[in-house]
Write a structure and sequence with these properties.
By secondary structure, this protein is mainly alpha-helical. It contains four helices and no strands.
Length: 186
């Protein structure tokens, strides 16, 4: 079990066993089952999309190191899609799904509360990414080189990325087994 002081998003390396109790009944290896509820499959697709967009942004930043202007339109479009989708996804989880899940599976309340705290931490990182993206966009549109702004965007994405991946992995270990065992509620 992971000590409770290691549960902050930036420091934890996984979930304690009590938050993973449903995973024993529906481990990751079973998630490809065609009988997995549609909501669970959609959840996994959304998470895969966030991972993919993060990878795309990392690739574009690397490709733009010598010529930031060359990646500007695609990077800004990818960043905006990433930010909007992730923010909307978290709002639906926190406002709709998590309250229903707490009632459906009281054993998972502590894990769902942890995921809600993660959302707050991630939101701060999304705001920093948004600000860095705007600064990069302004620099390119003003005719400036954009090198420093691209570097800053890379720095913030580098800090935010591992925490986001940790959250997505942990959320899947709580939510997907819950959906598989209880179906979509709410």
């Amino acid at each position: 079990m992971i000590p409770s002081n290691d549960l902050t998003l930036e420091t934890r390396t996984g979930l304690p066993s009590d938050m993973r109790c449903l995973l024993a009944e529906r481990p990751r290896e079973t998630w490809a089952d065609p009988n997995l509820p549609e909501t669970a499959r959609f959840w996994l697709q959304m998470h895969d999309g966030f991972r993919s967009r993060r990878s795309t942004m990392n690739r574009l930043i690397a490709e733009g190191a010598l010529n930031p202007r060359s990646v500007h339109p695609q990077l800004i479009q990818t960043l905006n899609g990433f930010l909007g989708s992730l923010d909307g996804h978290h709002r639906v989880e926190t406002g709709h799904y998590f309250p229903a899940f707490r009632q459906a599976e009281p054993r998972m309340v502590a894990g769902l509360d942890l995921l809600d705290r993660d959302h707050d931490a991630i939101h701060e990182q999304l705001e920093a990414l948004h600000g860095a993206g705007q600064a990069f966009d302004r620099a390119i549109n003003s005719g400036a080189g954009g090198f420093a702004e691209l570097g800053r965007l890379n720095e913030i994405l580098g800090r935010a990325g591992p925490a986001l991946i940790r959250h997505l992995d942990d959320e899947e270990e709580i939510v997907i087994p819950l959906l598989a065992l209880h179906g979509a509620r709410g």
